[in-house]
């Protein structure tokens, strides 16, 4: 029998989540893991690959274990948003990274997208309005968290997350606006 592998998805992600993602380098991460940076590059090609691994784990952590129903869709989304709040803000640099324009992990974020769109279709929203609702929900929550983590001075009147989320969810699902006259 050979030596057990030092690297795994979980070990890499655990070490990354103990770092400040705004400044962590692949060399720093390899040192934290006790491996050469070339060994780490066999698992992840670059920082984008690292964030793909992290996002897989984050989506697993935040997705509620229950399924939304026509009666619970709003509570389900609130649960999801609070999990995003807690998990994303617990990792220095993660919320700010997700809020910034970049390529998202297509596999993990597709799972999140599909679950949220499904929640909105349970309200009777058309597929197009469910997609628009996903965009409003996802962008709203992620941008709020990103601004919070980036330390943007939102001023003394900055919205509390609970109030922001309440207002956001009361306005969803999206509906076609009344034409302006």
From TrEMBL:
<dbReference type="GO" id="GO:0000976">
    <property type="term" value="F:transcription cis-regulatory region binding"/>
</dbReference>
<protein>
    <submittedName>
        <fullName>TetR family transcriptional regulator</fullName>
    </submittedName>
</protein>
<keyword id="KW-0804">Transcription</keyword>
<dbReference type="InterPro" id="IPR050109">
    <property type="entry name" value="HTH-type_TetR-like_transc_reg"/>
</dbReference>
<dbReference type="InterPro" id="IPR036271">
    <property type="entry name" value="Tet_transcr_reg_TetR-rel_C_sf"/>
</dbReference>
<dbReference type="InterPro" id="IPR009057">
    <property type="entry name" value="Homeodomain-like_sf"/>
</dbReference>
<keyword id="KW-0238">DNA-binding</keyword>
<keyword id="KW-0805">Transcription regulation</keyword>
<dbReference type="GO" id="GO:0003700">
    <property type="term" value="F:DNA-binding transcription factor activity"/>
</dbReference>
């Amino acid at each position: 029998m050979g030596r057990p592998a030092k690297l795994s998805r979980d070990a890499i992600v655990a070490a990354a989540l103990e770092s400040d993602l705004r400044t962590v380098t692949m060399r720093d991460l390899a040192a934290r893991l006790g491996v050469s940076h070339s060994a780490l590059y066999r698992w992840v090609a670059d920082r984008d690959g690292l964030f793909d691994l992290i996002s897989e784990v984050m989506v697993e952590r935040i997705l509620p274990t229950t399924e939304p129903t026509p009666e619970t869709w709003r509570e389900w989304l609130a649960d999801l948003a609070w999990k995003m709040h807690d998990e994303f803000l617990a990792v220095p640099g993660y919320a700010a990274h997700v809020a910034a324009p970049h390529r998202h992990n297509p596999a993990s974020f597709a799972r999140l997208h599909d679950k949220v769109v499904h929640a909105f279709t349970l309200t009777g929203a058309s597929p197009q309005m469910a997609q628009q609702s996903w965009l409003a929900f996802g962008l709203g929550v992620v941008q709020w968290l990103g601004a919070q983590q980036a330390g943007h001075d939102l001023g003394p009147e900055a919205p509390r997350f609970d109030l922001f989320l309440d207002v956001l969810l009361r306005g969803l699902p999206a509906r076609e606006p009344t034409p302006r006259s």
